[in-house]
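Morning!

This is the sequence you dropped in the shared folder:
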Amino acid sequence: MNLFPLIRPLLFQLDPEKAHHLALHSLNFLYQRGLLHFLVGKVPQLPTTLCGMQLPNPVGLAAGLDKDGRFIDALATLGFGFLEIGTVTPLPQSGNPKPRMFRLPKTSGIINRMGFNNDGVQACVERVKRSSFYQNGGVIGLNIGKNALTPMADANSDYLICLRAVYEVASYVTINISSPNTKNLRQLQNSQGLEKLLLELTQERTLLSEQYGKKIPLFLKIAPDLEPGQIFEIANLLERFEIDALIATNTTISRENVQSEIDHHQSGGLSGKPIKDLSNQIVATFYRLLEGRTPIIGVGGIHTGTDALQKKNFGAKVIQIYSGLIYEGPQLIKDCINALKP
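The structure's back. Tokens below.
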């Protein structure tokens, strides 16, 4: 029962951030009353293995939609094969000043400069533990970052704090060094900074794996705005430090193809349809360099099942969606699963 075409015009009358919260709370309301499963209906199955994790299907939720793990069970009921929560930081922070999210309706894009607004890593971990999806063995990734007030010289410490905090509950951990909305964060994508960060995180994972008796996969999330030299260096570091998977890509700072939009000048990261080709290029480039040895999670510009299949054809093992969900609604999950079937 696809009611989203009727609901979307009403949501799009609201401020984007308010609409975001209303949509999530409405889903949670329906879930808590046992109605959401009825509305969603049967979700196609397409069992997939990613880094040793068994997924019911290869369509995941990208980080950013549920930053604090408040809506895990409701979102899981929509049919996602896995969820990524966050970005979380060591300390709570309110993020950037509002307004900080803008729709680009002509091009089906979104610009956001949220700034890692979250309740802090410990609050998120407790919510994950309480969720039925976690307790029933669902795959939940935790996306980690640094606090805005932490100097870049101390950034690695924030990532280590978060890794230690989430290790017990995370199915995998994503190292987010590619958001454009935390000042200077993308500097960590440069080879020297990234080498040191990955060294410290992989060493810490070794200690944590001994402590907890399990080795949690580490993923790296990158920007689409990389120079050829950066791409080559990142590919080398992924293999050198045995990072388990690459998430390609985060939002872009480019404004190509959105000049006709009223809010195209707003600062922040651009996502949605306008980023599709750029994201696909990055996926394809890394797939060639890594020769399939490191799985790629494709994200960016997926608004149809055909878009999902394109990501797969360019080299993505699985996909994640976020902005497409806002424009197309939950039916997109089923459309993507069906399109990815052999």
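Headline: Residues 191-212 form the longest helix (22 residues).

More detail when I'm at my desk.
O.
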